[in-house]
Specification:
This protein is an alpha/beta fold and 375 residues long. The protein has eleven helices and 18 strands. Strand 12, helix 7 and strand 13 form a beta-alpha-beta unit.
Length: 375
């Protein structure tokens, strides 16, 4: 049995921009299978447009096409497959971008490690249980990160779902699954920020600003925002920044910060973050550069200055615990996630949304998926 879902499908990688003209993403009604064992059908309400989606469009990260894009979303469970515990029809859920099998050595580790079968399934464009549930004209369509959230409905493995309170608005719930999970986890889990520390954020897009919101909730003594775009720096005080600088102007702050989070995904940004870190401090990198990118660093500086260089993925913690904590912080007024949203858009605006993201004109654009329901 299958249903129809209205979805944004990437058909061409590396099409010339502006994508509003070349239109590599089509919005169509396609077939979606019923959930298999361990899976759920989710009626999607909202989805955020992230640089990780853009990287599939411009070819910075490899993927197979055709693919339904989207990995940061929120919705309501409509149907459950067999062998599912802990979820109910009607639950509001945030979707996360790496399923976990719970059995591999990475999942059994006492510290966060990316699930091995989950990572393999994401790379293959399939679901954790194997295969694809999306089809167009009798041919399979690939899933992005086990979610494919730019659609009216999605079938996902239940380990991609985190139940959140119904009081959390869908646009906020969507951002909890990537921007806040990633940025907040870099601050709390990987960076282990303590109140009263000096903090710097390099790259103040959606993830960087989310990191700033979480850091502000902890209570920094000082927070520096660094970005190439002055338009982004002008926003930074609303997210807790006490100082702002372009990379060129940040030299006066070198060696000053206890914790520095890099959220860009290129070597120059990471080099800036390392220079800002004080002796004994921690540099956390969450940006996703091209796989061919290489970094040159003087290892002696890590040793004699007792510095730490830390990679953080998916928040470096338990996604369920983290998202539920951030949801409660939002409800308690401690984490104003709404500030990250720069525009509410339609699914049909997706090519234009990629242009806005590429140009730096957008923070988090949120797609209203309630209007896309076709069942």
């Amino acid at each position: 049995m299958s249903i129809t879902t209205r979805a944004a499908i990437l058909d061409r990688i590396g099409a010339p921009s502006p994508w509003a003209q070349s239109r590599p993403i089509s919005v169509e009604e396609i077939d979606l299978d019923s959930p298999q064992p361990g899976e759920a059908l989710v009626r999607l309400e909202a989805a955020g447009v992230c640089h990780s989606d853009l990287s599939r469009v411009n070819g910075a990260r490899e993927c197979s096409v055709p693919m339904v894009l989207g990995h940061e979303a929120c919705g309501v469970i409509e149907e459950l497959g067999s062998a599912v515990d802990g979820y109910r029809v009607g639950d509001r859920v945030a979707l996360i971008f790496l399923p976990r099998c719970g059995q591999c050595s990475a999942c059994q580790s006492p510290h966060f490690e990316p699930c091995e079968p989950g990572t393999a399934a994401n790379g293959d464009g399939s679901l954790l249980g194997g295969g694809r549930r999306l089809h167009r004209g009798g041919s399979d369509v690939h899933h992005q990160n086990g979610v494919s959230g730019f659609a009216s409905h999605a079938v996902v493995h239940t380990s991609s779902l985190v139940v959140i309170p119904n009081d959390v608005p869908a646009p906020v719930g969507a951002l909890l699954g990537c921007a806040v999970l990633t940025g907040g986890g870099a601050v709390l889990n990987a960076g282990r920020m303590a109140a009263g520390e000096r903090v710097a954020i390099v790259g103040v897009g959606g993830v960087g600003l989310a990191a700033m919101l979480v850091a502000q909730a902890v209570g920094p003594a000082e927070m520096l925002a660094v970005d190439m775009l002055t338009s982004k720096l002008e926003l930074a005080p609303d997210f807790g920044a006490t100082l702002a600088a372009t990379p060129a102007d940040s030299t006066e702050y070198e060696g000053r910060y206890d914790l520095v989070i890099e959220c860009v995904g290129n070597t120059r940004a990471l080099e800036t973050a390392i220079r800002l870190t004080r002796p004994g401090g921690r540099t956390v990198t969450v940006g996703l550069p091209s796989p061919e990118t290489r970094l040159e660093i003087a290892p002696l500086s890590l040793v004699v200055d007792a510095r730490s260089l830390i990679g953080s993925y998916m928040g470096s913690g338990d996604p369920t615990e983290d998202i539920q904590r951030y949801a409660q912080m939002y409800l308690d007024g401690q984490l104003p996630v709404d500030r990250l949203i720069s525009a509410h858009i339609k699914l049909s605006d997706i090519n234009e949304a990629m242009d806005a993201l590429e140009s730096g004109d957008a923070l988090r654009q949120v797609i209203d998926l309630a209007a896309e329901q076709v069942r």
